[in-house]
Amino acid sequence: MGGLTILSVWARTRFGEGKLCMMKKPQIFVLVIFLLSLPAVYGQSILSKKINPDLSSYSMSHIQDWRKQTKADLETMLDDLDAAQKESFIKVAERANSFSWPPLLATVYLEFQSTGNRTNYERLVDERRKILCQLVLGELMEKRGRFLSQIANGLWLTLEESTWVSPAHIVSQRSGAGLPDPTDRYIDLVAARTAADLSFLYFLMKDDLDMVSPHLARKIKKELSDRIIKPYIKDSYWWMSFDTDFINNWNIWINTNVLKTILLVEDDEQQLHAVLRKLLLSADRFIDSYPEDGAIDEGASYWSHAGGELGQLLLWLTSSSADRLSFADQQKINNIGHYIQHTHIADNVFVNFADASYRQIASAAKIWTYGMLFDDPQRKSLSAQMYALDKASFNTSSLHTFFMYLPYIHELDTWKIGQEEKESVFYESLGLSVISADTKGKGIAFAGMGGHNGVSHNHNDVGSFILYHDGVPVLIDVGVATYNKQTFSAARYSLWHTQSQWHNLPLINGVGQRDGKAFRATDVRYREDKGKAFYSLDIAKAYPESAKVHTWKRSFELDKRKQKINVVEDFELTQWLKPSELMFISQIRPTVQGGALIYALPDNRTMYLRFDGAKVRLKVEEKSTADERLRQQWGDYVYRSSVEIIGNSKKEKIAYTMEIK
């Protein structure tokens, strides 16, 4: 066995289950020496240190052997799928065989510039990619040639697209938003994903394509070279992270798909080396940007596209090195893999802050990779649970996603679910606490966020918290609406769901939080003792000067056995301007009874949010979600309960309890 399955077999055996230009050889030697001198500047540089020039040369010189074995392995796995699975893929391909390919009109592409709508164009592109994938998989299963003509049609159209870049991302070209400039190549998430899909198509079907026309395969290689490989070598894009400290999932997501592309398709050894060395430095910047505890400030929704993609990158590097690489000794990478497990609440519910959604099906294949790399049955259990929730994740919409799952599909289907144990954790780097009342995810689950308001995909939510019971959201973080032109613009914080007054936070002197790293929590503390967890932080510095606040300390004491949380808001203002308010956001409309907010939960349970009625005034307002993405998460409405603090004292303590009975 070898190729993509080498890592799987190795793990089971061992564990028991900047601008760079094309250069001539002397110049490449100088370039390599120069690149090897850079990692010390950037940080730990795990990849660059692990993959020395000798190992890199070995991998590249044996690339054809690796490809031969990898292709044989994948073909064997396809053959080993049971007859019912194969038949289902073939039936899908039969429907796709009569598909009428939609045109991609310039006017639709321009909608993002004119109206902010990106989805109309992206929907058409996604449909094209899905149909092409369905046809390819049907042909690989059946091997009769009856889908080849339609594959050729879809492939030709894809190769003839003026750009593979999303209209929302083309704004990074020198001329800005609009139609793509043919003289200014850009690589975004969509282009890289398209490249990975086309690389798999070429890798597995070149001989079949040659039966239609040998120019199809040549066209794939040329377009991949012109749109991906040469621009990657020549240009320094922001997401490569060489010239900025702003690093997010784009880095590793694109780098992983570029790695797949060069390993599957590129034959020029100089270009292979040039891409690999630059890619390792860029990916190291991503790893270096993570704190040692492995926390991701983009939230659990982005783990599959960040930490999860890192696992895939390591898998491909290890495989192509003929298992001369191992990352099992890298605790930081292990911690990055743990984040998705530690932020899992129950079923498809995860801790969510910023742009993250509370419901998601995290990538089972990516979680499994970490469970395998670090011999962790609990992560394998979570992976199997995600797969059981959505077996369509072994899908027919993306070739590279399909082949990500294929090596592990039997294990995902048969691994025992329910072995995952919940534990309370504290991520000091984010000031994030995740507290579970029960090791099996039952009862209260609480998460509080410290940190600052300058994270990727930021909402002004420093000090906010969420509360669940048996996986049901009680006090919520609304998340983000459908991405549009405002979402990543100067108008971002005009969107209601990004503002602090629509999070579980105080409105101080009528003033909400501000965005930026300077607006942060201080004195963040966490401890556990005898069935209780204690979490506290001061959020005063998350507010601008106009809030006139000196300190605002929020303290939470969670009694796991009693399913009760005692909270104290201890604050001191420099000036009282108007009544401050505590905001509580929920999917459930509470009733007001004296000094209490009462939330009726499923299974005849009730959450009581109790205050001293002499100190506060309570009211509840309804907010239409309106946006389709928010409606899918929460229904037609969410509710904001305002607890107004009576009086004009500059110094006060407001104590309240959250209890579920």
TrEMBL record:
Q: What is its main location?
A: other
User: In this protein, which residues make up the domain named Heparinase II/III-like C-terminal?
Assistant: 424-618
List the subcellular locations. Cell envelope
Name the SUPFAM superfamilies for this protein. Chondroitin AC/alginate lyase (SSF48230)
Q: Pfam families per the record? A: Hepar_II_III_C
The protein, known as:
Heparinase II/III family protein
Q: What is the lineage of its organism?
A: Bacteria, Pseudomonadati, Bacteroidota, Sphingobacteriia, Sphingobacteriales
